[in-house]
């Protein structure tokens, strides 16, 4: 399973980035001290974030960082997830995305308007001035999505790269890709063609924790509940169609696909029978059994971990959101690219 994080921070921010770049909060003894938007979010995240030793060990191992840096990452990632909507709302048409960088995931916010740089700095984040807004990049990427049916088979993927302020088109044949891009009618400065050897194919055992079987083998994502049912789990849509029966890791009859979508997107849910009880944990193999505490999308640059029945438990970072990937069966959208 691709875990966003082992934590969720339960607090609300109703702050104004521009009108109130620094806010006051009551400290010990009732004193009032100024604190930036992001600093307050980090303080609140630090107070509510819970970390699992298994995740800290895995992050340290796979990202090449210390345990303390891993703990700091999780706090900073939780804080960034909470302030992203504030930056998006307040920078509006000038917002050009945000991401996390460095061992401890420092927050960087991009803007296409030089007059907004000071606002970002006052809010406690690093600022980067770029040419294109996120809205412009998203619109260009959406146009490519509309043209997916005519895209050459040598193009496996395209995505918005906020860190480099462009829409990247990966291609095994760059000449074909450039011709496709040129015919899109889009501003050439928005797009970048990159050579790639990627050849995406659906791997049934990439996501999840424990294995399950349905003629082939896939991995459980995580447990879900549904009123009036036994509950079950989410998984990949390419693993089965509605009505496909499943067996568990022990080959005992397990459940049935009740919903499935692929291509276009790639998700499904399996309702289990009364022999199985959904629980809110993930089998992280050598890292132990880890709890699922919620679902929050993390920013680009955030650490991310996944557990699969074939390759075990490994961590990396988020490279891009909302990627479109073309498999032999068709193009799917909304994919998150990771390392």
Supply database-style keywords.
339 residues; alpha+beta; GMP Synthetase, Chain A, domain 3; Thrombin, subunit H; 7-stranded mixed beta sheet; 6 helices; 21 strands; disordered N terminus
Q: Which regions contain 5 or more consecutive residues with pLDDT less than 50?
A: 1-34, 204-208
Sheet with the most strands, sense and barrel status? 7 strands, mixed
Task: Please work out how many helical segments DSSP would assign.
Answer: 6
User: What value does the average pLDDT take?
Assistant: 86
Shape: globular
N- and C-termini, Cα separation: 14 Å
CATH fold topology of the largest domain: Thrombin, subunit H
Helix content: 10-25%
Q: Provide the number of structural domains.
A: 3
The number of E-state strands comes to: 21
Please sum up the structure shown.
The chain is of the alpha+beta class and 339 residues long. It has helices at residues 37-48, 53-63, 67-91, 117-122, 134-146, 174-182, and strands at residues 2-3, 22-26, 32-36, 95-101, 106-111, 126-129, 157-161, 166-171, 191-195, 211-213, 217-219, 223-224, 232-235, 245-247, 253-261, 267-272, 281-283, 289-291, 303-308, 312-327, 330-338.
What would you note in describing this structure?
The protein is 22% helix and 33% strand. With 339 residues, the chain is of the alpha+beta class. Strands 1, 7, 8, 9, 19, 20 and 21 form a seven-stranded mixed β-sheet that branches. It has a five-stranded antiparallel β-sheet with strand order 12-13-16-15-14, with no helix packed on it. Strands 4-5-6 form a three-stranded mixed β-sheet. Helix 2 (53-63) packs across helix 3. Residues 1-34 and 204-208 have low confidence and may be disordered.
